[in-house]
Amino acid sequence: MTVQNHSQNMRTQALVVEKAGSPFVLQEILLDEVRNDEVLVEMKYSGLCHTDIVAQHGLMPVGGFPAVLGHEGAGVIRMVGKSVKNKSLEKGKLVLLSFNSCQKCSSCVSGLPGNCPSSTEINFAGTRKSDGSHPAKLLDGTGARGQFFGQSSFSKLAVVHENSVVPCDVSEESLAMMAPLGCGYQTGAGTVLNVLKPTPTTRLAVFGMGAVGCAALLAAKSLGVTHIIAVDILPGKLEFARSLGATETINTGDVDDICAAFAAIGGVEHIIETTGISKLIAQGIKALSHAGKMALVGVPRPDMPIDIDPLNFLMSTKTLVGVIEGQCNPPETLPQLIQLYQQGHFPIDKLGKVYDVQNIEQALEDLKAGTVIKPILSWNSISDTQQ
Ligand SMILES: [Zn+2]
Ligand SMILES: [Zn+2]
């Protein structure tokens, strides 16, 4: 592929959401210049995450429209800004893209960028923090939300912030299945490995067997956890969870209260909650053992308050912890997870399904129907940049 004009206004194709609730439409956009702390990435694949759909519908507190979303990119570096700090980021290098962070606050400096207080603004605003400029524009010059999670990877070419770029030593063929590591998979696996830290005898439950839940299950299995309880409402997903290593399942459609269901199988000590369903969260807290721990990953709906019994909570030493991006530091976590995959202990290839980017509507439909765990969009059918 040829990128002739590096300086400004490169044309490329991207999925654009015109306004809140509009569909993803593949169209030409203009990219702004690649600045000193940025990298031009040619996308090969981009995972489709639930947060993209939430943002598409304008349900995030920050960020305008039109918008180029996508935050599980995987591709190849085409150009590197002059002062990019990571010297292993070179032209031609395969990379995974992850979330952005300020790299200045105490959380970022201590290697916990998921806890960065500027995280929401940096990842959702879609303009450069330095001067509010737009890394992406429509052909008529209207500024679009770009660098969503530092990347806006629903684009054949993207101007990505250096903090979002992680080099990875994998073959181009395996890159597709790696793309969701940058958000969904690291969120699930990181919550287990970095936050809950179960031992082999811990009774661990996963609420919601989507991509995050399945990655959490695989991570727990990699630690040798012997009781992994999958909780979902779709029988197909529970069956799939069993094939991944779940030892017990609870179908929330079959029980009135999951507390009784947990009691019947010996209780639960760790829960990773990915559904955001208030009723499930409340019942899960109740079901936890005396010193149990629940990690909240799914965002509860603001209009559905969580009904917590304070006495049940106070008379125990239960812990409830909110987790962002699995408390991961992508430059460290992603290579670790890739290694785990290569050793056969984190078989994420069972979770992903590749769709041509032009079939995004099908991917969204399958995700909604629960017939696919993680749709991954391929950019390989989209032609070279036009100048
Ligand atoms: Zn920070
Ligand atoms: Zn995500």
TrEMBL record:
Domain Enoyl reductase (ER) intervals: 21-377
Residue ranges that the Swiss-Prot or TrEMBL entry lists as coiled coil: none
Transmembrane domains' residue ranges: none
Cofactor(s) for this UniProt protein: Zn(2+)
Keyword terms of this UniProt record: Metal-binding, Oxidoreductase, Zinc
MF annotations from Gene Ontology: oxidoreductase activity; zinc ion binding
Keyword Zinc: yes
InterPro entries per the UniProt record, alphabetical: ADH-like_C, ADH-like_N, ADH_Zn_CS, ER, GroES-like_sf, NAD(P)-bd_dom_sf
Family indicated by similarity: Belongs to the zinc-containing alcohol dehydrogenase family.
PANTHER family: ENOYL REDUCTASE (ER) DOMAIN-CONTAINING PROTEIN, NAD-DEPENDENT ALCOHOL DEHYDROGENASE
Protein name: NAD(P)-binding protein
